[in-house]
Amino acid sequence: MNLSLRVRVTLTAIAVLLVVLPITGLTVKAVFDAQAERSLDSLLTGRAQLAQQLARQNVAPGNLVRRVDADGVRVTLILRNGRQLGAPQIEPGGTVRQVTATLQAGQQTKGAQLLLSADTGLLADASARLRTVLLLSGAAAILITALALAIGMRFALAPLDKMTTLARSIASGRRGERLNPKRANTELARTATAFDEMLNALEGAESTARTAEGAARTSEEQARRSEELARAAEGAARSSAEQARAAEAVARRSEDRMREFVADAAHELRTPVAGLQTAAETLIQLGPDASAAQREELELLLVRESRRAGTLVSDLLELSRIDAGLQLQLAPVDLRQLAEAQATRLRLVAPDVSVEIHGTATVTADADRLTQVLTNLVDNARQAGAHTLRITVAPTGVHVEDDGPGVPPPARERIFDRLVHGPHSKGAGLGLAIARGVARAHGGDLTVTNRPTPHPGAAFHLHLPPPDSPPHPA
């Protein structure tokens, strides 16, 4: 109770910073260390994969060592005859991270032992520098916050100081002074107005001695109203603060989900882009001396990786359209006709998979979007190893059952999240997320269960609303 409000608020803010800053610093350092370790492992693994690719291209051992060499990586190549190329061999352990690979191709390099070593001491130095930067920035943040609070609290509490000064002047016998707030829509302004009203009531009571009892009752009533106003203002302030905190929490969760999604998308794009870069660099390095088989292999790699990147970008754009509100082209749709089109397509791309179609129904929906959903479901079943598909059409939706491995209960909701890969998935993990978004845009949903025992496999259920129910926006 001996400390002023200004000091208590300042000390509280500094205490919060003393708790939050170390936690934030430790989190940043842990993330940095983990990312550095993953980057080092990725560098060594990528160099080993490049060496295997160069060996398949029958690159000479010396040229292979020079092309695999990179900053921070020691390359040692031990041929089958015991000849050693590159940097001297060092033992792993301590601050040395090492990856060993046996080359599988090449006239001179087949069976050769490749040693890739990296010094992790650089990572430790970087981590130590980061820790120093975090400590210095944290101390500076605490100092700046303390100075800012010391200055800011003086302006923030100025109305209270003015009220205190006026109260003391009235207590000393001076009358007639008022706060007269310019704005009446703030908590302090309403309190100041109530304070002025109380002073008016008190001075009126003093000037009318004959009606002292009535004036006292009036001032008491006014004081009660002032207290109620103050309590109401305090309650409104608390409610506004709670709403602001809730909104901030929702915004932060949305921002975190968006950052995670963008990071995952960037990670997914990194693989095809890296493939394109590697193929292009290799094609440029080989030049006109490359054989027709090598050039054709690299060109096929460029086409495949570019298609993969294009498909991922298209899926991401499709998800953005769903998030923004999918515009549906509604018309009568024959669900059995859509199912038969999928069966025809599947007979072309996977002749060993049989399809059974049962039932018939016509609904009001977007035919292209429902085709997109059925295509994703059929392709997922085929990639999971299914040999038989059963498609059941009904006015309430479409059921796609297969004889694949099924989906375990803990993963039945997670597989509809974005960028989630199943054990048999070959895509970017966006197909089921898009399919569920399209289903919900129609006012329905997409769920998955397993087929009843003893039949193995998964059962996807595309639920559609009754014919008289309009679709909802995505």
From TrEMBL:
<keyword id="KW-0808">Transferase</keyword>
<dbReference type="InterPro" id="IPR004358">
    <property type="entry name" value="Sig_transdc_His_kin-like_C"/>
</dbReference>
<feature type="domain" description="HAMP">
    <location>
        <begin position="154"/>
        <end position="207"/>
    </location>
</feature>
<dbReference type="Pfam" id="PF00512">
    <property type="entry name" value="HisKA"/>
</dbReference>
<dbReference type="Pfam" id="PF00672">
    <property type="entry name" value="HAMP"/>
</dbReference>
<keyword id="KW-0812">Transmembrane</keyword>
<dbReference type="InterPro" id="IPR036097">
    <property type="entry name" value="HisK_dim/P_sf"/>
</dbReference>
<dbReference type="InterPro" id="IPR005467">
    <property type="entry name" value="His_kinase_dom"/>
</dbReference>
<dbReference type="InterPro" id="IPR003660">
    <property type="entry name" value="HAMP_dom"/>
</dbReference>
<dbReference type="InterPro" id="IPR050428">
    <property type="entry name" value="TCS_sensor_his_kinase"/>
</dbReference>
<protein>
    <recommendedName>
        <fullName>histidine kinase</fullName>
        <ecNumber>2.7.13.3</ecNumber>
    </recommendedName>
</protein>
<feature type="region of interest" description="Disordered">
    <location>
        <begin position="451"/>
        <end position="474"/>
    </location>
</feature>
<dbReference type="GO" id="GO:0016301">
    <property type="term" value="F:kinase activity"/>
</dbReference>
<feature type="domain" description="Histidine kinase">
    <location>
        <begin position="264"/>
        <end position="468"/>
    </location>
</feature>
<keyword id="KW-0418">Kinase</keyword>
<dbReference type="InterPro" id="IPR036890">
    <property type="entry name" value="HATPase_C_sf"/>
</dbReference>
<feature type="region of interest" description="Disordered">
    <location>
        <begin position="206"/>
        <end position="225"/>
    </location>
</feature>
<feature type="transmembrane region" description="Helical">
    <location>
        <begin position="133"/>
        <end position="157"/>
    </location>
</feature>
<keyword id="KW-0597">Phosphoprotein</keyword>
<feature type="compositionally biased region" description="Pro residues">
    <location>
        <begin position="464"/>
        <end position="474"/>
    </location>
</feature>
<dbReference type="InterPro" id="IPR003661">
    <property type="entry name" value="HisK_dim/P_dom"/>
</dbReference>
<keyword id="KW-0472">Membrane</keyword>
<keyword id="KW-0902">Two-component regulatory system</keyword>
<keyword id="KW-1133">Transmembrane helix</keyword>
<feature type="transmembrane region" description="Helical">
    <location>
        <begin position="12"/>
        <end position="32"/>
    </location>
</feature>
<dbReference type="Pfam" id="PF02518">
    <property type="entry name" value="HATPase_c"/>
</dbReference>
<dbReference type="InterPro" id="IPR003594">
    <property type="entry name" value="HATPase_dom"/>
</dbReference>
